[in-house]
Structures are given as C-alpha cells and as structure tokens.
Amino acid sequence: MSGQPDASARPRRFEASSILLWFQRNTIFALVLLLLLFIAVVDVMKPGTVNPVWLSNTLLFAAPLGILAAGQTMVMLTGGIDLSVVSVATGSAFLMTTTALKFGDASAVAMGLGLGLVVGAINGVGIALLGVQPLVMTLGTGLMTQGVIIVYSQKILASRSIVPDFIHSIGSDRLWGLVPLDVFVWLPIAALVVVALGKTGFGRLLYAIGDNPVACRLAGVRVWRLILIDYIICAVLASIAGFVLVGHTNSADLSLAATYLLPSIAAVIIGGTSIFGGRGGYSGSIIGALILTVLDGLLTLLDSPEPIKQILYGAIIFALAAAYSRLTG
Amino acid sequence: MNDSAPLLEVRDLAKRFGSVVALRSAKLTLSRGEIHALMGANGAGKSTLVKILTGVYPADGGTITVDGATRTFRSPAEARRAGIVSVYQDPALVPDLTVSQNMRLADVDAASVRSHLNDLGIAGLKFSELVRDIPYPVLRLIDLARALASDPIVLMLDEITAALPADLSEPVFAVVGRWRERGNSVIFISHRIAEVAALCDRATVLRDGVSVGVTDAARGSEDRIVSLMLGVETVKTGPNKVGLGRIGRGTAEQATSLEVRDLCFGHMLKRVSFSLRAGEILGVVALEGQGQQELFDCIAGVSRHDSGEIVVHGRKLALNHPGDAIAAGLVLVPANRLEALLPQRSIRENVALPLVRNLWNWGLVRAHRERQLVSAAVKRLQIDARAGSELRRLSGGNQQKVVIARWIATGFQTLLCFDPTRGIDVGTKHQIYRLLREMAEAGSSVLLFTSELPEIGLVCDRAIVLFGGEIVAEMPASEADEGILLRAAHGIGVALGAGAPRRGKGEIAATAGYSSPHVQGSGRDSGLFDKIGRAVAGYPALLGMPALLIVFLAATVAIHPSFDSFDAQSVAMAAFPLACAAAAQAVVVISGGIDLSIGSVMAVANVLAASTMKDAGFGEALLLAAAILVCGAAIGAVNGLLVVVSRVPDVIVTLTTGFIWGGVALLILEKPGGGAPPEFLNLGTGTFTTDWLSNSLVLLVVCLTAAWVPVRRSKTGLRIYATGSDRIAAFRSGVNVELARLIAYVLGGLFSAIGGLGLTMTTGIGSPKAGVLYTLSGLAAIVIGGVSLTGGRGGVTGPVIAAFVLTLIPADLIFLNIDPNFGQVIQGTLIVLVVMAGGLITSRSRK
Fold this sequence. Notes:
Chain A is mostly helical. Chain A is built from 14 helices and two strands, in the order αααααααββααααααα.
C-alpha cells in the first residue's frame, strides 16, 4: 500500500501459510477480491444485474462517500477522527443552495466551502493547539454546525433554495450516458490524496504524527501546523462531498448527509487504516467505499425490510473490521 | 547451597513475536537461596523470559518446572499465587490510583509494603498520593516493596538498578541479600557486570534467545561473562582496550560552538554557565534529578528556559521549539529513545524524519537524495536493517543507533546526548563511544550526560558535575577519576549557596531529591491559579459541576420568575433519560472504552417496555421492567464481549452494534406507539411527598445509587478504574482486565436500559428512534461532567449533573422565547468551550 514503501524489503522465510502472508503484505488485493466477491454475490442473487449501467450507478453513489472517506482517512492516519463531516457536508450543501439565487453560483459554492474551512479551522485549533481529543472536539463542532444550520433554515424560506445547474449535473449526469460526472470530481481528489500521502513530506508527517507525535516534535516538526491543515482539508473535502450529494438529490434538506457518518468511518477502517493512526492509506479507503456501496445495493436488492437491512449492514461492517484486524494482527 | 533439587527449572523455552524470534531455547536452573543473574545483550530475550515465567505472555514451546511440578501461568496473578513475582522494567502501578489503592488492587498488605520501603530507604511516603505524581525511581522501589510484601519464593528483578542512582541502589542490594538469607531465590537481570559480580551466585547468559552458558558470578568472572554475551573470547572491557585512540590535542584554540550563560529553569537550574568548543566532548555527571534533564531540554528547545542565554556562533538563540534548536545545529538524543522514534514506520522514515520537518519540505520527497543520506548513516552506524520495515522490531541497541543516525543524516553542529548507552549491550556501547569520538575529531561537539562514570574517562575531554541545579565541579577528563566525580555529584566538599542542597541526610528521598521533571516543572510552591486549575481539573464533579448547575438554575429562575413545581418536574423528567445515558457512558469510558450504541440500547429498552406493557397490570409491568433491565445488561455484555474478543477498536464495534441494536428496536416496534399501565408511568411522572420533587428524580437517584455505589466501593470498581487508567499495569497487578472491561459494558447496558424505561415512563410510549439522540448528548454530558476520555478518571455524579445542565439549556431558551434549536448550538459550543478550557488548564499547569 502507499504507506509502506519498504514492505517488500522484509525477508520471506517463514513457514506460515504463504497465501495468508501474501495477503497480509498486500491487503489491497484482499480488499479487491472481497469487492469482486460482493459483486459476484449481487449477480448470483439476481442474474444480469451487474452490467455497465449498474457499475455506473455504483460509482455514482460511491463518489460522495469516497470523498468523505478521503478526509476521514487523512485525519485517522494522525490518530484522530472527524465526527463533524456529516454536519459540514449537509451544512455546506444547504448554505450553497440557499445563497445561489441571491449571490450567484460561484459565491454560493465559495460560501459552502467557506463553512468547511471555518469548521475545519475550529476543529484544528482545538485539537492541534489545545490538545482536545478529536472525538470530543468534532462531536461538539458537529452539534454546533448542525444547530446553526437548523436555526439558519428557519430564518430563511426554504423555497428560495436552488441547486445550481452545474452542481446538479455533477451529481447526476453521465458522460456518454455511462461515466458519472461526479467521478471526475472524485478522481482528481483521489489522485491528489494518494500522492500526497505516499510521496510528499506532508503525507510522511501525517503517518509519523499518528505513530508518535512526541517524536515528531523532537525531530523539529511543528505538529500543530500539520494537524490544523489536516482538519481543514478534511472539512473542505466534506463540503465538496456535500455538493456532490445535493447535486444528486437536487434539493437541500437538513438530513442530507446524516446517514453517511458510519459509512465514512467504516470505509476507512475496512480499507485498512488504523484508528490509532500511523498505518493505512487512501487506496484502501477507496475500495472500502466501493465495498460499502455495493453492500448497500445488495441489501436493497434483497428487498428486506429496513430494520433487517440495518442489522445486516452493521453486522457485515463489524465482521469485515474483525476479519481485517485478524488478518493484519 | 545448591545440592537440593532446583526450585525453578526452565527447559527449551521458545517464543516468537510475529516474524521476530525472541527466545529460541532458553534454559535456566534456579536453586533455593540463590541470587541468579540473567545476562545478555539487548534483544537476547531476558525480558521475554521473565514475562513468560510470570504469565504475561504464553510460551510457544518448552517447559517450566516449579518444585518438581510442570506449570504454565496464564496471568501474573496466577504466577503470584505460585510464589513467582516480578518487578518489571516499567512499574506495574496504575497511575490514576493512589499508592494504597494499588496495594489493595494487588491484594498486598500496605503495612508490610511500608516496612519494606523503610528498608529500601524510602521512609515517609504518603500512601494517599496518586501514583502519577510520584517520580519514576521511587515507583520502581514501591513496585519492589510490593513484590516483597507478597512474600514470593522467586523474585525477579528486571534491571531494577537501571533507573536508580548509586545511593538508592545500595539498600536494594542489602534487601535482596537478606531475601536470599531467608532461603528465597532471586533472578537478577542487569547490564552492570560489577553489580552482578558483587551480588550474584551464578549467572546464566542468553544470546539471541539461546542460553549459551552458566557460570559462577564471583568477582573475577567478568571477562568470561562478557565473552559469553558477545560470543567472542577476546573482547575485554577497560579504557585501554576499546581502541578509541583519543588524541590529546589542545582543544583550547578551537572555536566555541555552544555557550550557555546563566541558564535558569524553575527550581531545577540555577545560573548554569559553560561553553563547549568545536571538536570537544563535554561530559555531564549528576545523580538523578539534579537538573541535567532540564539542562538538555532547554538547550534542545524542548522546554523554554526562564532566563539566561544560549549562544551559538555569537548569536543568542530564542528556542521556542526543538525545530529552532535543530536549525541552530543543536540536536538531541533523548533519555528515552522510544520518545524519539516512530515504532510502526521503517528505518528509512525514522532516519529521514527531520528532513521533512519544515513547511518547505512538505512537497514531494526527494527520494534519491533521501535514500543516499539514509543509507550512508545506516552504514556508518552498522544498523542491522533486516527488520527495517518496522522500527519496533529492532533491538534496543539498534533503535538507539537509529536515533543517532537521524542526526548524522540531517547534519548538526552539537550533539546533545542524554545517557545514550543506558540499557545497551557492551558491543553496541563501544560502537557508540567510537562514533562519538569520530564525530568530535571531525569538528562536531558533543554534550554527553552519562549515568556510567567510566564513560567520562573513556570518551570525554572534559567533565562538569551538576548538583542541585548548579555546576559544582569542572575538570579535564584525565583528572576525572570516579571517586572525585562521585564525591562532587553528592555535593561533598562543595560550598553551595543557601538552600541549594535540597537533599540532606535523613531527608526523604521520595519527596526531595528524586522528583521527576514532570513534577518539578509545576513546582511545589506554584501559583494560586495553578492550584485552582488543578483542583478543578482534578475534581470537576466536586466543585465545578454543582456550581454550574446552580448557576443555570439561578439563571432559569431569573429568566422565568414564575418557575414553579411543574417546571421543576418537567426538567427532572426530561433529564432522566439523558442522565442515565451519561452514567452509562461514564462507566464505560472510565474503564477505558467508549460505547456509541447507548442510544440504540435505550431505544430497544424503550420499545420493549412500550410493546410488552401495553395491556399489562402494574405488578406484571414491574416484572417486565426487571426483565428488560436484564436484557439491557445482556446487550451490554454482547457489546463488551465483541470489544474484548474481536480486537476491533471499541469505537468501531459500538458504532456498528449501535446500528444493529437500532435495527432491533425497529423490528420490535416499527412506528412510535405502545404504552404502559398508568401506575408504571406514575413512577416517572408523579411526585414524591412534595410537588417540587418529581418521582423521576427520586427514581434516578435510587437506581444509580443502588447500581453504582456498591460497585464503586468494591474491588470491582477499583479494577474498572485501574483498567481504564493503565491496562498493562492493571494486568500485571493481577487484574483480569477483560473481565473488568466486560463488567463496565454490562453496567453501561444496564444504565442504558434504565434510561430506556425512563423514556417509556416520561413519554408514555415507545419510539424506536427516540433513543438515538442520547448517544451524542450522553457523550457531551460526560465530557462536561469531567470524565477523562482516556479512562480511569472521573465519576458518575459529574456526568449526571451535567445532564441536568444540558436539559436546562433548551428549557431556558423556551422561557426566553428564543428558538430552542439554539439549544443544540449552545450544547455544541458548551462542549467545545469546556474541553478547550480543560486543554488550557492542563497546558498551563504542565508548564
């Protein structure tokens, strides 16, 4: 994986089941296999389901989750977590749609991103400078953001909200009727994040901070700068995910991204990033997001009632996380 | 002495951690009444052997025989019952408990511990003191006294003297000697061959996980032990045989590379001045806690000095961060190498870490240049890079070399080396000595603190001695004979300013001489602000929370003068479920976990009650309520089991089980509905004796008191706190940590179920989604209520009171005719402010 450039240097001389060992070193392939397995199950359950249109749909639905997971991966690598992403995504989308008519599309988008920037900066200041635990800090800012948006929604008339055309087409149109446009938002973000984590000093330091922040300080690293920037990036990515989502639903409502909290964390965990930081990478989270999207589709396909779907979803995510921690030890 | 059957016999013991073999085939025979040394280079497997013997790890192969019977110990508690007790390198004391609570935890008698402590030279230690406030060397002695108090037949001491200054080591030797005379046996691990020769009867030497020999440990056998350890016959110790080849050139004319003038730091450094020339190695000698740590930290920019100057190349430095020092060419090799390393990252990333420290290095890594720099440094230090993909797999000596290699790759002018050879085998030590000399020859300077006096003569050009934060002696290394250094380090024959010698005869070592840097930083006569800050931070439930509640109540009455009994009742009813959620979360968090499924569990209890009690009588309803409480506890047990068994982080486990329990609640009752008999509802909605006292408040207090106080008072409560504070130390103290965590989750489930029943009572119906909100609000309440999310600290009262505060907020807003949705904003803001204030207080009192 991107985070372990030296993995191949390890001597291979142990008699443990070599296939298992190979997967331990190349977890990404185990994940891809798992993804293919899920896709196969879908096709077995209802033959003929898996076709280009289905794949296109899966990508369309996976993109916002993938973008949320990008930010979540970056903060979880430092040993943090961001519970405010769903509030920020919802809030940014809501702010953008309700200001588009009055200020124009560009300023509306800027204001949406601005919300992410502000919340991210608050998170960053609390966590990086005051040493607040990320879970608590982002819980607080998440509640705060959500509350502000609710109050704001009652001050303005919802009828004045409008989703700009280009946002709408990003969220729902397809190139040649097949490639969803939101992939063109996701792809550059994914490429940037993978390169940033694997090849840059910034990425190197995110892993290092997750592993031992004291060592980073002793090595002369201003840890707080990284953490601050990290949480800002995470929140801005959440804003972008909110835009993609609202482009898809084409109407802003206050529970737009609410269901994405568990998946945004689960995708990262399934993708092999340690919640304690220092290990993992975004390529795994991408597969994790795809797996969760396919799983969601599978449960819909089963046509089971909502409670059963919810129970299965939770159980499968848990099983995957447990299997993963067994595999990597 | 050794003719009787062996007391303890270890045969062919093997242990592997992942791909690293720690023990291949260890043998050890321990006779009665023997002090047996266990020796070997770093990574030879000594500590692993001790940990297997005491049941910390299971062995992969081999047998352990005690008194002729084959035994396997599955936990330290089991080994303790068989009379085998160890004092590990890291004290097995739980930091957030007091000394006496720690004794109770391990089932030892405090009076007996105290008498052993007296023998060890630590008199007058306050047993009511929290362990985290006690300096490290004293903790090791407390650990030893506790081990002695449990009256073991086999006592294992893993480098007990490594952290002890000479004057505290002596009583240890005396006590251990007396222990042998009583017919007991001791396994003694040490790197200090002189100690072993003086104290031990025999020595077993381990090399690469294999026992390579047993030898008499009498004086004169030192060379034989060393050659066994190294696996070479010819290596000897002694200054003339190291081959350092120091050149006795005059360093006087060399340029000054570092000048320290009148450096002061708290009580720890008093106008320290010295200068260091290019190409010079300056040794620093001091007993534990004489300011050497602070001196190094100030020069390296880790701590900010109070006054004085640090001058490099004629420029006065403003050191606010280690980065500033590194930029000026001052680099630190810290006392604890683990502080400086990234355990999960590769050797390459560890060595290259400072290369990406600055903003302008955050772009693409220049891989080619980096690889060159790193491999040059790795080669120069002869680092064994076979296990190089994860640093934690390297042996201690190789890890230490990585820390030094980092600075060779980065480049520096002055190396601040704090005891670089502590706990390192002889071969690596000499490599490090040679390297330091080479660096000096090349024109760098080194400031070297060492706890091993012969190193001064071996590697240094000049030595200074610190005592009580002042430099009390300075001499060329050629004159620095160990006796002179030791006398100076004890402040003997040195005139000092008034109040300087902080450790007179008969004074308690525990409180005066050996305070850890952590304690010293805050000082004993700190300002009022710090005291208040610490009091509030330490006991928020005692001081802060009731005060906050009173403020909010007063505000409520002020806003809404017609606040009547009905309002009081509705506040109590609204707070009931949240208070239960807060209590549930508090217990789990105190045990070191977290439960994000509490809201869903409450929902399950809520809909279970509403759907089953609909047509039931009162008595029946009470029975059902009891059954639901059992269900809640069972759900908590499932959560706990999954957390303990699956090794998946608790956040993830309970996030997913929260999903599952939420689904279960929906299965039981799809839409809000159901009901309960009026008498049952009256338990929540009615009043008790006066209209002002809601039944729900009484019920809450009764339930929580009945369920929590007995646990809190019992040893189970102590175990829960211990597990949350330090899981490893708790385990080594004999606590079944899995069970303690499980019990905490069971209690969490039980409290959640009470909250769920409360929802039914106060709303009259069941609603599958009503509980969900309480997960986050409950978490908010414990944070405001002063429970530390890292575990082990806080209580249940604080969060419960915080729940009332959080309930009053929306009520006040309604009274004020403000949109109650602001309540959420305020709740969020309150969390943020409380935690930020907490952060400020701790960062302030840390300074």
